[in-house]
Structures are given as structure tokens and as C-alpha cells.
């Protein structure tokens, strides 16, 4: 019988980050996956990052997470989104080589001293008096563990839909996990059904690129991992095409054969990543939608047709895609499809990702109703970290939403009812200007120190942080205000490059963080005051809702939320109502 | 939830009058009334004529009006008892009710309850205050229900535009692949919002009336006829007038109706070199008041002409809008004043219309009052004006994440203006300004 400290189930982006942090805490882990060559395989689009998602990747980098390192090392095309706006919303997005990424992931994880990769299927979670004792696998039998992290993505009760056809699968041509889904139900966890979709993978040589708009990669975007020294690779191109009225006509005429619209699919799909059918129905007035054509890898003969996710029958997918300029002769390696899967109602979990009912059982990724690799990775990290802390009999660590996006994500998940796959946005944060890619180290080093981590990324960030603090004492006074003589730096027309020229001795990362800090100084100061106060009183008891509901200083919107929410402490209100309302709640409670 | 206390107060003026009305509001209002010997069932919207008594003693014969919750002024059960005027009858009834367990209503408490019970919005509650305190007909009319919702209407229309803009910015930040951020588009929306805010500001300025606003200070050298002019503007004798220099030593103020606009006028001790102690205090108080003045009315004696000291006085106060009146033209018929000086005779009233016109014009009161705002509302509207300053817009617009913050600030101000959120002391402030009983 195999015995270990923690079992991590699922080799996706959540699973990878879970084992990576557990490895750093030197606990023995069994990393169970159906196919080890598919560890970290991008099930959907071949890119990492993007708005708010990149912020998560940067946060993980401070903890020595693998996602930033793997993305940089297998990146083939980079773009800094929102670069025409201010640095708070800059977002790096990297196209990755979808073959190299899993290969590199496997190589790195194989070198982990305490992690054993097990190719197997988990049939059952074993418990004793509502405490996890291990898992039962098809081939390996019982594996004993103190904690279990489940990160099974769309594999849990997964079912693929293409037109009128449907069949059980975890991904196209990969088997799903049905037994595990039943096991969760037996543990009395309530499950919901969600849906997502993916477009076709088409052959590169079947597309006429001369008719499409080319989108080259950008230089000087910076890298995700601090260890990559902000060097990136741009060796592939992306392309842009457009649907037209003819395309829309064909889709409209065939809606009844779309699994989504024929009523076959009951799960709810993501509003923010709609299928092409959804776009045609919901935005009936639009004459064209953009299609992004992305390479699956350097040597790959396949292209990802972003923006055309569909559950129409294969022949209809052919028919509508071939109306698009450049796609006249397109051929699929695999058609687009919709997939329905089981997710756990997140009111079942704590912000540590542990289930409330079963001690030692942690859930991460799509099983919690999220979409996106980065969202999965952040949860995998949180679950992995807290499962390890539990085994080590140490205090749990909860990320707070006012200083980091991991906190925004995990806080939202446990508090808000998930009705559709959850995706992170910068607008989900109340402190957008303070939660940036560039100051990831300032925000996350305190957490890394609390865990007691030591890894090459963190070491490097600490050096950068020293530089940053040195600059800060030089430029700011004790009251955290920019000194008079440096007010010239607060000129909004001043670009980062010109700021950088003033301090040639400093590193790019320290400078960029400083540059942004100066730019947003006034706003950040205001956030900081509010945030400090509400975090200080986060454990204040709310003895009665009545005094809050009868107060005039709390907004109507907030009262509506307070009325229906289960709130015991001030922190239960985080994310549900505006920070200024929370400040007033504290005021009322203190008065009493 | 604790039981709502029943409150009681006289709601008509104190002193001699034909009728006095005592109002009771709260969960126990009907019971309390019954304890005054009023038998039988009290029905909503009925009027009863009954003898009332307490502890076996007959108090008065009263007319009793009944309003059942929620269809009453406060939204609670309300009983209004009309008895003989003068202080005796109402006082006895109120003492009896307090002995029975009612509490004396605090300033503005009936209206505060109406607001808390959702019977009226904050702006409506504030307009009740304005109406009760209205100094002129124009103010009363503009505080009328239909017109106050005009302030709400303007605020809501700005809010809608802000929300639209915010949605646009948010989607361009979070979906840059799909929603291109078009600066021209954003600029157009901002311009409209800024225009709306400044128009709201202009309208509010014309109808901004509060305890100390608009304030006009009459000043000038001693014995130039300031107090005579003060009385004339007030249309009654308020200040003591004499030929003796320095008659007015302290500062007196009164509200006057100037072409329909309420203006608080302050009469001051004149300026002269030799000063008594009382005068010195008066002068230093004048300097304090100058800071909050909307307008200075500088008066000089045309017979003597404008002296060098007077010229330097005028120069010293040049930061505040000023109207200069050349007084005593009855005594110096042939003298000519400078063109912008208004020639008047406070004694005969000659030129007074021209002076009043000049005053209202200088205070930008050329428009009729459309909306009336109080201090609280005016301060919020002033703050709103400074959130998107025109010279900053071209810079902010490039960085939509900063623009988003500013829009958020404006939305917060609007929520405060419409009374959706309030700070506790703001609440107390508003309702403490009510006379007791309203």
C-alpha cells in the first residue's frame, strides 16, 4: 500500500501548482493523473495570461509557482494587453507551445524529490468520521494520505456534445472520471452542472493566411517569471479574421441542431466566453465578430480558431467557417465541441479550498466552478499550500481580497453563488490600482515569508524589493507622500522609459513598481486607509443584523445584501458590499 | 426589534393663537389617546369631537384627527388633537401624555421618522425644512414637491450617464480584444457629464439658501447711512439710526426679500480711525464675516466724495464681489458718481430698485430659482465640480483606469446627494434644523 502525506488528483494547472508548493514544504505527495504526458496540457486556447489572469500568474511567481516559468520557457508570441492604458491594467498574454508546455511540466515535476507521479484513475475518496484518509485507485488500490486535493477539471462526469451527438469524455478523445463524481455525491457534497466549449483545431495548411490580418508578437513586454530576466520569445504569429452575415445566417438556420439550443445541454455556460451560437443570438445586430487564429505550437500543424467555440454538428461548423475569408478550404483536426461537467457548489468550501463537510479534502479549479488555467492554478496553489499546512499542523493562510487577486478569486468563490463558470476580471477587485502585475513582490513577499519559503524566484524578488524600498525612502516622506522635489515624476505624460532613464542603476521590475506607485499615489493612499481599517476589524462580531439594517449610513444596496447573507463577522462582508459600507458597518458596531 | 417609542409635541406655534395642535406618533398613539378619555374605536381618516380628561379632570374639548399606519405623515399611527389656543390647554395635554409614557419629540423627529419609514426621500425631507423656513415665496415654490424632485431628476440623469460610462470603461479594460477604448467616444460622454454637472451647479447656486447664505455685508465709513439703507432693504425699522457717528457698534443681521431672493443682510459698524473697544470687536467680527460673504455693499457719502482711505478699503476687499452705493444724493443733487456706482438716497428711497437689481445681478440671481439647495447639497455639488476638472480631462482620458476611479468618486457623491448613503452626523444635522414639531 502506498502511503503519503497528500494526494493530488488531476494533472492540470491546478494540480501542478498544488504539487509545486507542497514539494517546497517537503511533504510526500502522490500526483495522480490519467496520463502523465498530458500534465499541463492546454485543453482550450494555447495561451496563458490576459487581463486579471496575468495578475494571478505574477502573484504565483513570488511563491516559485511553475506556471510563470513554464509559460516563459515555452512561449512563442507575447502581447502586453492594455499597454495604451496605465500600468495597473497592463496584462501580459503569452501564446505557448502546447506540446512543449506539458513536456517541460513533466520534466520539472519528475525532478521533485518528494513527489511521485502515479498514472491511474481515482475511483473513490476514503473517509473516516468526516476526515479524509486517502483515495482508492483503479490500479494502485488504496493510497493513504492525510489530505487530498481534487483538481479534475472538466473530467468529473464530463460529457461532450457535438450537434445531436453526445458521449462521456474528459477532453476530446480522453476518458472522463465518473466514479469520482459519484464518490463526491456519496460524501454529501452538492454538485451543479456547468458547461464550457472549445472551437475547432484546424490544419495550418488549410488556411489562406494571405487573406488574414497578421498580428506579430510584441517585444519589451517583460516576462512572467523573474527568473526569465524579462526576456521573451516571439517566433510565431497570430492572425485575425472576421465572420460575416453569411456566416451568421448559417448559424441561425441551424440553431436547432446546436446542442446548446436544442435543450440537450442543461449546464450553464460562461457569459464571458460565449459560443458562436450565443454571440449570434445575443448580439443579433452585429454584422461581424472577430476570429483569432492562434498556432498550437512551433512545429504544430494545427491552429486554434479562437472565437468560434461551437456545439453545432461538424458539417455545420465546416459550412459556417468556410464563409470566412481565408477559411474557404479549412479542415479540422478536431471540431469544436461543448462539454458539460460536474462542479461542487462552492458554498461547500472554505477560502482555504477545504470542504466544510470533509476535513482534509480540498478542491481546486473547474470543480469549483471557475474557468481558465490561471484561476485553476491560483486555487491549486491555495489548496496545496493549506493542505500542507494542515498536515504540518500549522495555521491556515487565507489570502485577502484587498491585497491580491488570489484573494479576490478565493473570496468571491466561497461567498458568491456560482451560476456560470467564474472568470476573474480586474473590475472584480475594489483596489484595482493597487493590485498590479508590477508590484506582485511588494504584495506577496509577506505571505511567502509567513509560509517560510525559500526558492530562487523569491530570493530574486527580495533583492528587487530591497531596491524598491530604498527608492521609496528616497522618493517618499514618512507620511507616505511623494517628496516635493520629486513631484516632477508624478507627471502623467511621463512614460516609463523616461522614468527608467533617470535611474539607470536600478532593475526594470523595481523601477516599474515604483513608477506605478508614484502614478497612483493619491488613489492608493485612500485605498490603504480604508483597507487597513477594515482588515484590522475583520474579526469583529456582528451580533445583530437589525442595527445595521436600521442605520442610515449604510447604502440600500448593502442592506439588501446584508439581509440575505449569512454574516457572523465583519470579514464575511468582504467582497459582498463596498469597502466604504464595510467601514460604516464597523463604525456602527463600535458605537454599540 | 425594539418597540418604536410614541412621541408627542405641539405642532403649531407657541403663544397666543386660536387653535393649538398636539401630534402623537408611534405604535402606542391610539392607546395613549384613549387614555385621555376618548372612548370607542379610532378609525383612519376620521375626525372626532370629544371631551378629553386626565385623572378625572376635564382638560378641554378637542377635535381629534386619526391617521393609521402607514397612511400618515410619519408612516406610524398618528393622532392629532386640536384644542384651544394659548399655552395652557396644549401644555396640560402634553404633560398628561408624557406621564402616560410618551416622549417629547426632538427637533425634526416627525419628519425624520417619515424619512426612516420610507414615507419620503431625503431630498423631500429636506424640502420640508426649506418650506418651513422659506423666507420668500420663490423659495417656498421651488421647494415644492414637484420641483424638489427636479434636483433628484438631475442627479439621476447624471448618474445614468456615469454608469454607462463606467460600463464602457470596465469592458474596455477587461475585454481589450473585443471592446476598443475609443478616446473620442469617452471624451464625448465626459463632456456631456461635465456639462450636466456645471448646469446643476449654476441652477443650485441661484437657489442656494442656508442659514448663512447668501450673505451680503453692508460696510463703509461711519455715518454714511448704512443702517438707514439696511432698514430700507428690510422694509422695516431694525437698526437704530441717528446722525451721530458710530451709532451702530455691533453687527446685526436679518433676512430680506430682494426681488424674490432671500438674502441675509449684515449691517456693520462703520470704519473709522478712532475706535472704542466695542467698535474694535465689531470690526474684527466684520473681517471674520467677510470670509463667508457672497457680496459686499459698500456705502459712501456722495456729498463728501470717495476718500483715499475708502479707496484703499475697497481695494482690500476686492476678492469678494462688491456693489458700491453712492448715498445721500438727496443732499447733493449735482454731484456725479463714477459710472458703476449706484446713486441712491436711503432716506427717500430713490435709486433703491436699481440697487436691488445690481445686488441680484452680482449674485448671479438673474434667473428665477428653479431648484433650492441647502448647505449639504451645495457642498456635494461643489465637490462634484472638482472631480473632473477640464484641464485634467485630456490626461485622465488616456488612462481609463484612472478615469474609472473618478467616475466611481462621482457616483459616490451622487449617492450621497440623493441620500442613499449618509454619514450619521449629516443625518442629525439635517433633522436638527427642523423646528420642534415638524
TrEMBL record, chain A:
It holds the Pfam family GIDA. Its cofactor is FAD. GO terms for molecular function: flavin adenine dinucleotide binding. The keyword ATP-binding does not apply. The keyword Nucleotide-binding does not apply. SUPFAM superfamilies: FAD/NAD(P)-binding domain. Keywords: FAD, Flavoprotein, NAD, tRNA processing. One of its GO terms (biological process) is tRNA wobble uridine modification. InterPro entries: FAD/NAD-bd_sf, MnmG, MnmG-rel, MnmG-rel_CS, MnmG_N. It comes from the Bacteria. Residues 5-393 form the MnmG N-terminal domain. GO terms for cellular component: cytosol. Belongs to the MnmG family. Homodimer. Heterotetramer of two MnmE and two MnmG subunits. PANTHER family: GLUCOSE INHIBITED DIVISION PROTEIN A, PROTEIN MTO1 HOMOLOG, MITOCHONDRIAL. This is tRNA uridine 5-carboxymethylaminomethyl modification enzyme MnmG. It comes from candidate division WOR-3 bacterium. The lineage of its organism: Bacteria, Bacteria division WOR-3.
UniProtKB/TrEMBL annotation, chain B:
Residues 6-119 form the GTP-binding protein TrmE N-terminal domain. Its cofactor is K(+). GO terms for cellular component: cytoplasm. Its EC number is 3.6.-.-. Keywords: Cytoplasm, GTP-binding, Hydrolase, Magnesium, Metal-binding, Nucleotide-binding, Potassium, tRNA processing. The keyword NAD does not apply. GTP binds at residues 223-228, 242-248, 267-270. It is found in: Cytoplasm. The keyword Cell membrane does not apply. Belongs to the TRAFAC class TrmE-Era-EngA-EngB-Septin-like GTPase superfamily. TrmE GTPase family. PANTHER family: TRNA MODIFICATION GTPASE GTPBP3 (PTHR42714), TRNA MODIFICATION GTPASE GTPBP3, MITOCHONDRIAL (PTHR42714:SF2). Exhibits a very high intrinsic GTPase hydrolysis rate. Involved in the addition of a carboxymethylaminomethyl (cmnm) group at the wobble position (U34) of certain tRNAs, forming tRNA-cmnm(5)s(2)U34. This is tRNA modification GTPase MnmE.
Amino acid at each position: 500500500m502506498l502511503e503519503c502525506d497528500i494526494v493530488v488528483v488531476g494533472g492540470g494547472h491546478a494540480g501542478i501548482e498544488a504539487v509545486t508548493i507542497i514539494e517546497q514544504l517537503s511533504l510526500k505527495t502522490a500526483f495522480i493523473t490519467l496520463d502523465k504526458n498530458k500534465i499541463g496540457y492546454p485543453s482550450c486556447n494555447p495561451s496563458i495570461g490576459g487581463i486579471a489572469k496575468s495578475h494571478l500568474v505574477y502573484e504565483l511567481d513570488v511563491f516559485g509557482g511553475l506556471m510563470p516559468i513554464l509559460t516563459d520557457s515555452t512561449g512563442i508570441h507575447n502581447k502586453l494587453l492594455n499597454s495604451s492604458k496605465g500600468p495597473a491594467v497592463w496584462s501580459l498574454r503569452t501564446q505557448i507551445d502546447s506540446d512543449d508546455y506539458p513536456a517541460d511540466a513533466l520534466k520539472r515535476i519528475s525532478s521533485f524529490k518528494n513527489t511521485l507521479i502515479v498514472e491511474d484513475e481515482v475511483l473513490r475518496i476514503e473517509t473516516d468520521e468526516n476526515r479524509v484518509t486517502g483515495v482508492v485507485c483503479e490500479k494502485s488500490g488504496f493510497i493513504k494520505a492525510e489530505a487530498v486535493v481534487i483538481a479534475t477539471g472538466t473530467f468529473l462526469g464530463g460529457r461532450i456534445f457535438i450537434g445531436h451527438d453526445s458521449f462521456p469524455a474528459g477532453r476530446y478523445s480522453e476518458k472522463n472520471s465518473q466514479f469520482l463524481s459519484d464518490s463526491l455525491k456519496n460524501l454529501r457534497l452538492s454538485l451543479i452542472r456547468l458547461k464550457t466549449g472549445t472551437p475547432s483545431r484546424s490544419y495550418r495548411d488549410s488556411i489562406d493566411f494571405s487573406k488574414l490580418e497578421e498580428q506579430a508578437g510584441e517585444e519589451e513586454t517583460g516576462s512572467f517569471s523573474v527568473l526569465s530576466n524579462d526576456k521573451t520569445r516571439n517566433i510565431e504569429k497570430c492572425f485575425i479574421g472576421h465572420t460575416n452575415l453569411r456566416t451568421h445566417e448559417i448559424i441561425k438556420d441551424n440553431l436547432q441542431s446546436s446542442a446548446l439550443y436544442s435543450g440537450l445541454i442543461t449546464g450553464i455556460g460562461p457569459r464571458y466566453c460565449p459560443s458562436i451560437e450565443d454571440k449570434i443570438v445575443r448580439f443579433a445586430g452585429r454584422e461581424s465578430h472577430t476570429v483569432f487564429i492562434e498556432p498550437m505550437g512551433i512545429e504544430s500543424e494545427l491552429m486554434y480558431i479562437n472565437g468560434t467555440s461551437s456545439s453545432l454538428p461538424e458539417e455545420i461548423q465546416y459550412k459556417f467557417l468556410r464563409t470566412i475569408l481565408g477559411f474557404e478550404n479549412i479542415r479540422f483536426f478536431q471540431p469544436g465541441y461543448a462539454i458539460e461537467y460536474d462542479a461542487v457548489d462552492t458554498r461547500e468550501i472554505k477560502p482555504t479550498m477545504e470542504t466544510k463537510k470533509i476535513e482534509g479534502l480540498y478542491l481546486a479549479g473547474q470543480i469549483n466552478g471557475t474557468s481558465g488555467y490561471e484561476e485553476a492554478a491560483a486555487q491549486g496553489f491555495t489548496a496545496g499550500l493549506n493542505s500542507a499546512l494542515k498536515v504540518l499542523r500549522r495555521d491556515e493562510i487565507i489570502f485577502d481580497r484587498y491585497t491580491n487577486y488570489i484573494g479576490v478569486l478565493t473570496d468571491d468563490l466561497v461567498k458568491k453563488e456560482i451560476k456560470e463558470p467564474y472568470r476573474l476580471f480586474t473590475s472584480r477587485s475594489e483596489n484595482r490600482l493597487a493590485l498590479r502585475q508590477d508590484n506582485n513582490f511588494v504584495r506577496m513577499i509577506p505571505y511567502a515569508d509567513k509560509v517560510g519559503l525559500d526558492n530562487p524566484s523569491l530570493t530574486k524578488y527580495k533583492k528587487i524589493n530591497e531596491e524598491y524600498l530604498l527608492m521609496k525612502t528616497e522618493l517618499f516622506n514618512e507620511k507616505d507622500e511623494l517628496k516635493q522635489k520629486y513631484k516632477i515624476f508624478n507627471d502623467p505624460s511621463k512614460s516609463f522609459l523616461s522614468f527608467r532613464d533617470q535611474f539607470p542603476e536600478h532593475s526594470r521590475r523595481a523601477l516599474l513598481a515604483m513608477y506605478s506607485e508614484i502614478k497612483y499615489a493619491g488613489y492608493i493612499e485612500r485605498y490603504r486607509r480604508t483597507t487597513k481599517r477594515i482588515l484590522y476589524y475583520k474579526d469583529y462580531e456582528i451580533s445583530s443584523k437589525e442595527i445595521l439594517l436600521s442605520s442610515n449610513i449604510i447604502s440600500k444596496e448593502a442592506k439588501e445584501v446584508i439581509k440575505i447573507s449569512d454574516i457572523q463577522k465583519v470579514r464575511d462582508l468582504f467582497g459582498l458590499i463596498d469597502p466604504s459600507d464595510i467601514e460604516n458597518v464597523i463604525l456602527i458596531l463600535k458605537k454599540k | 426589534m425594539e418597540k418604536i417609542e410614541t412621541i408627542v409635541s405641539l405642532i403649531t406655534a407657541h403663544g397666543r393663537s386660536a387653535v393649538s395642535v398636539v401630534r402623537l406618533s408611534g405604535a402606542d398613539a391610539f392607546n395613549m389617546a384613549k387614555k385621555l378619555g376618548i372612548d370607542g374605536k379610532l378609525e383612519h381618516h376620521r375626525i372626532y369631537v370629544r371631551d378629553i380628561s386626565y385623572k378625572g379632570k376635564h382638560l378641554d374639548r378637542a377635535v381629534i384627527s386619526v391617521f393609521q399606519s402607514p397612511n400618515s405623515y410619519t408612516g406610524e399611527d398618528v393622532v392629532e388633537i386640536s384644542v384651544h389656543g394659548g399655552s395652557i390647554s396644549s401644555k396640560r395635554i402634553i404633560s398628561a401624555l408624557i406621564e402616560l409614557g410618551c416622549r417629547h419629540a426632538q427637533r425634526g423627529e416627525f419628519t425624520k421618522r417619515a424619512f426612516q419609514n420610507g414615507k419620503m426621500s431625503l431630498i423631500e425631507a429636506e424640502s420640508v425644512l426649506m418650506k418651513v423656513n422659506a423666507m420668500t415665496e420663490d423659495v417656498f415654490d421651488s421647494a415644492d414637491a414637484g420641483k424638489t424632485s427636479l434636483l433628484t431628476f438631475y442627479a439621476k440623469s447624471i448618474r445614468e450617464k456615469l454608469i454607462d460610462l463606467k460600463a464602457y470603461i470596465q469592458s474596455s479594460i477587461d475585454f481589450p480584444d473585443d471592446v476598443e477604448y475609443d478616446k473620442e467616444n469617452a471624451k464625448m460622454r465626459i463632456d456631456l457629464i461635465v456639462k450636466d454637472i456645471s448646469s446643476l451647479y449654476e441652477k443650485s447656486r441661484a437657489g442656494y439658501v442656508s442659514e448663512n447664505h447668501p450673505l451680503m455685508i453692508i460696510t463703509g465709513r461711519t455715518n454714511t447711512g448704512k443702517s438707514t439703507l439696511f432698514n430700507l432693504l428690510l422694509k422695516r425699522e431694525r437698526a437704530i439710526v441717528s446722525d451721530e457717528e458710530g451709532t451702530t457698534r455691533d453687527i446685526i443681521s436679518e433676512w430680506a426679500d430682494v426681488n424674490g431672493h432671500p438674502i441675509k443682510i449684515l449691517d456693520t459698524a462703520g470704519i473709522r480711525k478712532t475706535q472704542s473697544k466695542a467698535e474694535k470687536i465689531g470690526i474684527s467680527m466684520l473681517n471674520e464675516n467677510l470670509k463667508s460673504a457672497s457680496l459686499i455693499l459698500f456705502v459712501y457719502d456722495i456729498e463728501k466724495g470717495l476718500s483715499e482711505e475708502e479707496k484703499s478699503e475697497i481695494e482690500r476687499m476686492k476678492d469678494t464681489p462688491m456693489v458700491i452705493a453712492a448715498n445721500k444724493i438727496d443732499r447733493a443733487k449735482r454731484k456725479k458718481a463714477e459710472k458703476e456706482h449706484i446713486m441712491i438716497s436711503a432716506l427717500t428711497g430713490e435709486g433703491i430698485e436699481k440697487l436691488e437689481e445690481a445686488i441680484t445681478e452680482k449674485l448671479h440671481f438673474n434667473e428665477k430659482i428653479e431648484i433650492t439647495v441647502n448647505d449639504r447639497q451645495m457642498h456635494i455639488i461643489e465637490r462634484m465640480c472638482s472631480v473632473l476638472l477640464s484641464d485634467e480631462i485630456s490626461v485622465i482620458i488616456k488612462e481609463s483606469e484612472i478615469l474609472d476611479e473618478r467616475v466611481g468618486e462621482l457616483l459616490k457623491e451622487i449617492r450621497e446627494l440623493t441620500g442613499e448613503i449618509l454619514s450619521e452626523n449629516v443625518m442629525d444635522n439635517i433633522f436638527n434644523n427642523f423646528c420642534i414639531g415638524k
